[in-house]
Amino acid sequence: MSKTTKHCANCNNTVKGNFCTECGQSIKTSRIDLSHLVEELQFSFLHINKGMIYTVKELILKPGYTIKSYLSGKRVQYFKPFTFLLIWGSIYGLVLHFFNVYPDSEMNRQNNAIFDINYIYNWYYSHYSLIQLLIIPFYALSSYVLYRKSNYNYIEHLVISSYTHGVKVIILLLFYPAFYYSHSRGVYLITLACLYIYNIYVLVEVFKTSSWFKAILKAVISIVLTLIVASITIIVILEGIHHFLRIF
After folding, report:
1. Is residue 203 a part of any domain in this protein?
2. Among 43, 114, 115, 248, fewest CB within 10 Å belongs to which?
3. What value, to the nearest 5°, has the Cα angle with vertex 185 and ends 139 and 99?
4. Quick one: DSSP state of residue 78?
5. Which domain, by its residues, includes 94?
6. From CA 38, how far away is CA 52, in angstroms rounded?
7. Is 1 contained in some domain?
8. Strands (E), the chain
9. Is residue 154 a contact partner of residue 141, using CB atoms and an 8 Å limit?
């Protein structure tokens, strides 16, 4: 056997280059010490930072091309969709929890004898990432139904919704300082408008096959359908909780 032949420390496969062809681990391994830890942290931070910034930029400037590229298999340079949404959702939830100013709560104040609305919003933003993961199936379902000729399966529509919602959370973060200092309904409405415009923009960019008017109309119908189904689901759940509380 050649003197240059080595064995992978992970799977014991014979390796002739710098990386194992079976498991992908580098042949260069060493004791884990302080220098190794610093190098590992530096690599992880730069890798996440570069991938995240690039993905955000591409999703804002050319979302259709970016999402279709990811779905077609070009995935190395992009941040994974579900992790992308979870990270930005967690950041937004932490920001709102820290500053304790909830835009939706302030703009929709109401007295309810059964539910403490502020408590609900507090819980909602404390579990924001989880809530987003529960919401995107509704968006994915409506787009899957309306754009079934696109040949994307339901899971691929989940990817589209995850990337879309991730950028929508970034939009919320960008507008949050303005709302925090102004508590303005105008800022709130502008933020909502930007969210829906971006959502329409993505759907048109990804699925447009005919005129702009038809593409935009179909995107609007998809979003409205999502809101209707999600609202009915939430009402049913709240009614179920109400009925449960009345029994006990």
Report:
1. yes
2. 248
3. 80
4. S
5. 61-247
6. 21
7. no
8. 6-7, 14-15
9. yes
